[in-house]
Backbone:
């Protein structure tokens, strides 16, 4: 996990080096109960990403995905800096929830 400041955005990057997501299925992964075809042998219900996307939408965040099957998946979540800073205090580059 990485936290970056890029221009007027706060970007959280979350990356894993697991099974990846088939490119033809990326557009569906935020649908409730959707599970990629390569996840059948793993437990889960397809709720986590859908719920996360709904929560992030409340904060006007955008989500980008970079993925390759059997290599990695990276989620880049961007927040407008001004909107983030009006909800949180900002000290020397660290966020502290009030």
Residues:
């Amino acid at each position: 996990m990485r936290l970056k400041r890029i221009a007027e955005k706060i970007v959280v990057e979350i990356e894993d080096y697991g099974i990846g997501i088939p490119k033809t299925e990326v557009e569906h992964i935020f649908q409730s109960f959707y599970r990629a075809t390569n996840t059948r042998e793993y437990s889960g219900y397809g709720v986590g990403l859908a719920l996360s996307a709904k929560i992030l939408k409340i904060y006007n965040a955008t989500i980008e995905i970079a993925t390759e099957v059997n290599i990695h998946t990276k989620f880049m979540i961007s927040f407008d800096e001004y909107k983030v800073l009006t909800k949180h205090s900002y000290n020397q580059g660290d966020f502290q929830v009030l």
